[in-house]
Amino acid sequence: MKIFKNRGDIYIPKSENKKSREETVLKIILVAVVVLTVVFLLLLNHKYKTVAQFFGEGEVTTTQLALDEQDLPKISGKTNFLFFETDDEKEIIHYIMLIQADKDSKAYKVCSLSPKTRIDNKSISEIYKSGGGASLQKKLTEYFGFEIDCYAEFENSSFVEFVSKLGNMVCYLDESIRFSGGSGDDKYTIHLNEGEQNISGRELSNLLRYYSSEKEQFNLENELFLSAITRLFNESNFEDCDSLFKLFIKSSTSNITVRDFENSKNALMIFCLKNEDITIYSVNCDYEKNVLTRQSVKQIKGYLSK
Question: Quick check: pTM over 0.85?
Answer without folding.
Answer: no
